[in-house]
Amino acid sequence: MATGTLLLVLTACGGGGGGDGKGAGAGSGSGKGDTTASQAVVAVAPADGADAVATSGALKVTAQKGKLSTVTVADSEGHAVDGKISADGASWEPTAHLSAGTKYKVHAIAKDADGRESAKDTSFTTLVPKNTFVGQYTPENGQTVGVGMPVSIRFTRGITDPEAVERAIKVTAEPAVDIEGHWFGNDRLDFRPEDYWAAGTKVTVKLNLDGVEGRPGVYGKQKKSFSFTIGRRQVSTVDAGAKTMKVERDGKVIRTIPISAGAPSTTTYNGQMVISEKYKVTRMNGATVGFGGEYDIKDVPHAMRLSSSGTFIHGNYWGSSSIFGSQNTSHGCVGLRDARGAGDSSTPAAWFYDRSLVGDVVVVKNSRDKQIAPDNGLNGWNMSWSAWKA
Question: What predicted TM-score, i.e. pTM, was given to this entire model?
């Protein structure tokens, strides 16, 4: 009996030597009682608590002896950083740059081959730049503009990494259309579709420039969005030879207006031009555009800018009514008959001004001048689509 009792005790204490295996040891990786540590090792760069971290290229999460299953990175306000785990699960990197002067928290989980999890939590702070730039943009938020209006952004510092800056700007349209950017020099970036915008389109621009290193040691500091709406389609065609302008609204010519374009010695540019500014009355001084003291008119009525070099379509009260439709007399502008003071709404210039939007297109043809340069004003439509995208 003593021997039988001893055997019974030994069998009870042996536990799991056979049967269904539910009593397996802790190192087997199965069962709720498994306390063996995960073999997966999570590493985060930069180190926990790091300061003055670069906004691009510094953040990376990796896993050894396992695969990443979860990675979340967020700033102190809870805004998440987009990123992607690699196909093999070995690493994670952000898909965009980080903001400057910002504290981020990282939470990462990896699983080993047996499904056991290993987690790591760290935090770091990005650098505070000494030198910054911003983008000054047109059109304005909430503005209704014509079908020719591009998104034009001029940077306060010359950009030496245009790809990084352009990646940080997103322009979308509703209804959707392919939109491409084009750089003019190192400080101006314009966006447009292949053809004029469709009437009624809503365009949204997201500037995620905060933290972008646009040139060595110089970082963007903007993070904002704005939108604008395309109004009705109005394209006006100036025929400098015939001395007329046909105003077309939504596919229908609504008026033909006699004009006076540039004189033979000071011809008007040909090409597609976009109205960029409107002034009910403004001063025009020839000395500011290379014509010395040839003219200084302090009250030019109903003036709309077509180029940055000084081409306008505007009212003319000082010329005889007989010149409109019969003679080209200006210093390169397109003149319409008008009254001094811009107070007579019945004149052709007032009529056109009242029915025009910033962003409307004015096409000049049959002038004895060259085609306007695409960066002279908002006039990128004078480039082919293939050249624009190049």
Answer: 0.87
